[in-house]
Amino acid sequence: MKQLHKQSASARKDEEMPASDTPPYSPKSLKNPRSLPRSLNYILKEQRLLFVLIGIVIGATFFILQPSLSSSDGRGVISIANRESIDGLGHRGQTDFGRHGYGKYTNGVGRVPVGIGNRRKRIVVTGGAGFVGSHLVDKLIARGDDVIVIDNFFTGRKENVVHLFGNPRFELIRHDVVEPILLEVDQIYHLACPASPVHYKHNPVKTIKTNVMGTLNMLGLAKRIGARFLLTSTSEVYGDPLEHPQKETYWGHVNPIGVRSCYDEGKRVAETLTMDYHRGDGVEVRIARIFNTYGPRMCLDDGRVVSNFVAQAIRKQPMTVYGDGKQTRSFQYVSDLVYGLIALMEGEHIGPFNLGNPGEFTMLELAEVVKETIDPSATVEFKPNTADDPHKRKPDISKAKELLNWEPKISLKEGLPRMVDDFRNRILNEDEGRGSR
Amino acid sequence: MKQLHKQSASARKDEEMPASDTPPYSPKSLKNPRSLPRSLNYILKEQRLLFVLIGIVIGATFFILQPSLSSSDGRGVISIANRESIDGLGHRGQTDFGRHGYGKYTNGVGRVPVGIGNRRKRIVVTGGAGFVGSHLVDKLIARGDDVIVIDNFFTGRKENVVHLFGNPRFELIRHDVVEPILLEVDQIYHLACPASPVHYKHNPVKTIKTNVMGTLNMLGLAKRIGARFLLTSTSEVYGDPLEHPQKETYWGHVNPIGVRSCYDEGKRVAETLTMDYHRGDGVEVRIARIFNTYGPRMCLDDGRVVSNFVAQAIRKQPMTVYGDGKQTRSFQYVSDLVYGLIALMEGEHIGPFNLGNPGEFTMLELAEVVKETIDPSATVEFKPNTADDPHKRKPDISKAKELLNWEPKISLKEGLPRMVDDFRNRILNEDEGRGSR
């Protein structure tokens, strides 16, 4: 088994398996080793051993007859076969895809279309149990591909992919990308990195290691196996931009020694590595610079403005605005991003490409939309701004429009209600969980 | 013994030891093991063994009486004691220090002043066999400190420190900082990284690894042993600056995906790591941003403008000017930089501090000075400029002046002749070496 990498002291409630799966603990047999011969005797008597053997044969037969169920490669794979969606969350993965006319990628949901079987790709998604990653995985699985998710569950959650556990084309590996891994795949979507300030500032050195060693490891894998590699970079590489909106040619305005630098500089150097592997080793690479994105499965309370406002409004708390609230952001609905990532991966252009929604909102305008959507009585509370927070950010997406034929289709007013349902459920469950303790 | 890290295919002629130091090879005793009893007999006869024992006692006594000579820690140390400067290069280390009134650090050259022995520091200098590193080591040794040099000899050269081989306070470890190392020291000067474009572009991924893993390893060491850590960053973190001259508060203008990015972004992220270890773990850190520096022991033909011009003028070749020759640089003599680094390490301020000479020259003006100094008949040849080459760069050093009480003292016209002597000797030796082959 792959060693479990403990990365932070943050709570990991979601990683515990249900207690019923583990064998009952039997302290006696450990404390009294002298009674071992007697229990051995017990096992040997009464054809008990024979029945164990019969059980083994039955189990083996089952797996031999269904080879796809035993296709795990033995490297620390969590493959929980024959287990349907446990908690009713299964529907989430199939909500927003196949609606927007991206016919090329909508081969139906959940089943492999006839005839596509032998063309299906093996794809690894690092960070695939995270917010964006899990939506991407849903889309790739729906398209008919074999998908391996790598996640260390620092910010990723099993709930985000639990509805896929029963699918033989899905596999989940608990692994930290800071360590190398060997896999045989055709494409690598490299998303693994905490992406919200509250998470990436938690252990800045680890954030840099994830960006540098993680990207190095995945690029090394891509080089070794000839896979295509897609880096999800970020609009943060533009820092607090002096050019507005930001084109891909803009070099950015980033503080190298600030408290956010671990993420900004880490992602910049990940881009550098990606281009150096391309130039030096001929690795097929793609770079996406992702702007603010929202949707179901975002972390609650991760400090990002959309999740903050929505969670606060649902909880009947005032919405916290940092600074004067006039700094602007653009908000992209997650399914738009997923289509952009796939278009980039499948296309012929390296990038970098801005993937974001150019619709620009001030924090106060966003608060207004959240208020309209959730609770007309919601209020706003002002707090001093955090260090290095960019004043405005808005993508120029003409390059992606022209070369990838991509643009976002879902407006904030359309997308926000879809997110609110998910958040309401989770906050409700959270409160119930607290109440029952 | 520490494993030898082969990092590049570049020639390493300078690392071979003189053949006269190795014991003569005796194939007979190996090929005829049956003759061993006879040779044993030979040794036992005639009191030969007794004399060997006497020799051992003499040797041991020598080391017991001079304990400092046996202070090596046995970790892959190349300590060649009792060996005076071999080739007349010994004087180089003592040329330029103790002249400029930095009384605090000039306790005489080559000998430990009386009474300083118990206060002397243990200092490691990574990249200590390189151009700047070796001058720093000379100064620290001259001050009376114990100095350990770590170098992988990618661009460092043994010739730069060979005059120190006989000094018991000097130690040389062949080690690549990309791998961790355990040492017990009080201060860490972290210089290790190829610094000229021709070298850092040679293997861009390795350049990033050196900057990230190398800095991580040395910061980890500093944290573990409570040492003070000084990072030598670079003016390249300012990229092609939009602010002129550059203050330390300027965030820079760097292309994250260009061919020079491995160095620029690598150093930026090294600064980030340094500040994160300071903020998160309380490591005592110092950051210097070094501007163009020249002096004896610079690599010949490393593509840097000063060494290029000087080498070309000495070889009677035309001096190559890239672009129109109107881009400007500031040139700092290496001894000024060394005093700045020591003042920063010993002072109470973290930085970053610009260390450079604010005197600004265009490439054509520099060519003129080289012409005057070396050969009035030297000519200039224009070539197209390389990608991402900054148009101008000039340090604002008011912060270092105010807080470190430091400023450069040696002008280009003073410093250049000191470098020319060294270059002339080396180019002459090079030509002789070629001629004799």
From TrEMBL, chains A, B:
It is a single-pass type II membrane protein. Coiled coil: none annotated. It comes from Genlisea aurea. GO terms for molecular function: NAD+ binding; UDP-glucuronate decarboxylase activity. GO terms for biological process: D-xylose metabolic process; UDP-D-xylose biosynthetic process. Residues 125-419 form the NAD(P)-binding domain. Pfam families: GDP_Man_Dehyd (PF16363). Pathway: Nucleotide-sugar biosynthesis; UDP-alpha-D-xylose biosynthesis; UDP-alpha-D-xylose from UDP-alpha-D-glucuronate: step 1/1. Belongs to the NAD(P)-dependent epimerase/dehydratase family. UDP-glucuronic acid decarboxylase subfamily. Residues 1-10 have a biased composition (Polar residues). One of its GO terms (cellular component) is Golgi cisterna membrane. Its cofactor is NAD(+). Keywords: Decarboxylase, Golgi apparatus, Lyase, Membrane, NAD, Transmembrane, Transmembrane helix. Catalyzes the NAD-dependent decarboxylation of UDP-glucuronic acid to UDP-xylose. Necessary for the biosynthesis of the core tetrasaccharide in glycosaminoglycan biosynthesis. This is UDP-glucuronate decarboxylase. InterPro entries: NAD(P)-bd_dom, NAD(P)-bd_dom_sf, UXS-like. It comes from the Eukaryota. PANTHER family: UDP-GLUCURONIC ACID DECARBOXYLASE 1, UDP-GLUCURONIC ACID DECARBOXYLASE-RELATED. The chain crosses the membrane at residues 48-65. Its EC number is 4.1.1.35. It is found in: Golgi apparatus, Golgi stack membrane. Its main location: Golgi. SUPFAM superfamilies: NAD(P)-binding Rossmann-fold domains. Residues 1-32 are annotated as: Disordered.
